[in-house]
Specification:
By secondary structure, the chain is α/β, with parallel strands linked by helices. Helix content is 40%, strand content 14%. The structure holds the ligand O=P(O)(O)OC[C@H]1O[C@H](O[C@H]2O[C@H](CO)[C@@H](O)[C@H](O)[C@H]2O)[C@H](O)[C@@H](O)[C@@H]1O. Residues 129-132, 137-139, 141, 144, 167-169, 242, 244, 249, 251, 253, 282-285, 287, 323, 325 line the site of the ligand O=P(O)(O)OC[C@H]1O[C@H](O[C@H]2O[C@H](CO)[C@@H](O)[C@H](O)[C@H]2O)[C@H](O)[C@@H](O)[C@@H]1O.
Amino acid sequence: MRKQSVIVPEELAVTTLMAVVADPAAHHSALLPPRSSAFGVRCARYKRFLSQLDMGSGGGGGARISAWVDSMRASSPTHVKAAAMLSASFAASHDEDYNKWVKQHPSALTVFEDIVAASKGKQIVMFLDYDGTLSPIVDDPDRAFISNAMRETVRDVARHFPTAIVSGRRRDKVFSFVRLRELYYAGSHGMDIKGPTKRTKHTKAKTKAVMFQPATEFLPMIDEVYKALMEKTKLIPGSRVENNTFSLSVHFRCVDEKAWSSLAELVRSVLKRYPKLRLTLGRKVLEIRPSIKWDKGKALEFLLASLGLADSGNVFPVYIGDDRTDEDAFRVLHGRRQGLGILVSGVIRETSACCSLRQPAEVQEFLRWLVEWKRSASLPRRTEARKK
Ligand SMILES: O=P(O)(O)OC[C@H]1O[C@H](O[C@H]2O[C@H](CO)[C@@H](O)[C@H](O)[C@H]2O)[C@H](O)[C@@H](O)[C@@H]1O
């Protein structure tokens, strides 16, 4: 039995401001593979899809920023509103909606048997986001540690399937948390890719050389903006700028809501001079990155190609992520009609993922099940081989 859910004010505030500025392009979410699905539950079709917030700093960017600031103000719940949201009637009606949503995006644990049936005969490739997926969201980005148990689970996963971590963070920072050399790492939202430095049965010698950085020309610009933001954000208590090498994160998790608009204005004023950079919104974080056509979805495609699986019909990529930036990868899977996107969320979210998991603990459970399934599936084969 799944736990009852209550939407938290933070999620509501961010979701509301996203709704105001997002691209209302229609999009359908469907279970993959959509036609030959072996899954018992079909995903619903969404009326609208909130594409990733993209506030280019040039041209109309200013107007869109104001919309963002306005919606931020409008959507920031006061304490009274927050208390009302947590009232019994709010919780009950939200639970009803949430249960409907979960029917459309079933728990990957509930439909586990269907997932492995759909992957039968195919090479599973695992793509894992880091923050909010492998580690819980915490106030201090430098302390978003992965647990030892999760690390061991990911290590086991990598023994059985080619595995990549795809993160908005700096590649070396993610590596310093995860410390598994047998994985692929795609940092800076996929703009900094490196293959495993430890050989596994999935990583042939040549994959060691995998290295791809499509945005190197932006490094001086990113560095300049980092310095400017570090200086200016000193004025906003609780704000924090993180240098992710090919992108920057301006955190507002610890900023008083009353100062959000000042922070947004300040970021806008810096970015005005850099039309080649764009701004997107994550979980209480503004992400600044080059406006090149490269994202986590492209990184997924690049990694499949590096594994020699780009055009294979026999590949089953599984992408697990919690962030809006992960939607790019979910969309790629949707477009390829291949594999499975799993959104990590305990609240209703518009997504192109087919399945859901509520939190990192459930991600770990799912990964463990996958390893167990793979081990037991290869047992008879191993026994046969020993007999010969
Ligand atoms: O792609 P991801 O691996 O999910 O990285 C996205 C951003 O994650 C981090 O920020 C988020 O997690 C922090 C720690 O829990 C939290 O304090 C923050 O509010 C979240 O937005 C990371 O610090 C960013 O650089 C990443 O871009």
